[in-house]
Each structure stands twice: as C-alpha cells, then as structure tokens.
Amino acid sequence: MPDSTPTVPELEEQQRRLVLPRFTHEDAWALGCLLVERARKRRAPVAIDIHRAGQQLFHAALPGSTPDNDAWITRKRRVVERYGAPSYLVGARFRAKGTTFEESSRLDPDAYAAHGGSFPVTVEGAGVIGAVTVSGLPQLEDHRFVVEALEEFLGRSAG
Questions:
Q1: Deepest in the core among 3, 40, 153, 155, taking most CB within 10 A?
Q2: Which superkingdom heads the taxonomic lineage of this protein's source (predicted)?
Q3: Tell me, what's the pLDDT at 157?
Q4: pTM for the full model?
Q5: Every domain of the chain and the residues it spans
Q6: Which residues fall within 8 angstroms of residue 29, CB to CB, at 6 or more apart?
Q7: How far is CA 44 from CA 1, 23, 40, 123, in A?
C-alpha cells in the first residue's frame, strides 16, 4: 500500500473488495494465526482479536502489547459494530467533513474509538457478521496490517 493516507473512496473500495465467501470458527482461527505470524515477523507489539456475532473467536497478545491494547480493541470494534464499516474509515469520514468522531458522533469516547485497526468481517450474502481488530501500532499501520492480512486470507480462501 502507498505511504500516503488513503482517501475515503479508497477506504470504501477496500471494504467492498474484502468480502469473504464464508467465516467459520476454523476460518477465524486461520485468520488469527495468519495475523500472529505476520506480527511475529515484524516484531509488532500488538494484540489481535476476532469477533463474530458477539462471540470472541480469537485473541492473542504478543510481546510488548498491554492491557490498554485490549481496551482499544473493544472501543474500535464497537465502531465497526455500530457503523458496519472499518474504524479507520469511520474516522476518515468525520475528518472529511471537517470535524472529528469525538466531537461529532455523540458517542462516549470511553466506549467508542474511530481509530484504525478494526475491520468488518463481511460474508457474501450475509453482510457484516463480525470484526477483526489489531491494536498496538499507529492507527494507519493497524488498519493496513489488518487489510493486508485480509487480502492474503481472501487469496488463500479463493485458491
């Protein structure tokens, strides 16, 4: 991905493109392990979480992550659940309007964070059924980390 900050249309295109044919417990495990593998290679101090239909299917906390990362995961995931869109995209839409999520969403910032790192798990024919979330890197890096893993996972699912 380019080093520049993605535009709202680019972020929306990512969401349209990253749709899975299915998402089982086994898929959650495989995606979670892929994220852990990628994080270990980068020595990224992240926590990783995958939820489906209100149930946590995967969680890992790598060296250097902290309990704060789990709190960020919860806040970012709530944004995905509420808006049905990537947490970074939600924040970008507010910024594009000349405001911030915190100023204009009317949601408790202790419960919701429109920062990068949580991406909807979208299944063909079903829509958004969950979220995959990473916390521990700067927000755009968290977002890109999840997107890159979803792209690889989708490529494996198709192949």
A1: 153
A2: Bacteria
A3: 73
A4: 0.95
A5: 22-158
A6: 57, 58
A7: 18, 26, 6, 28
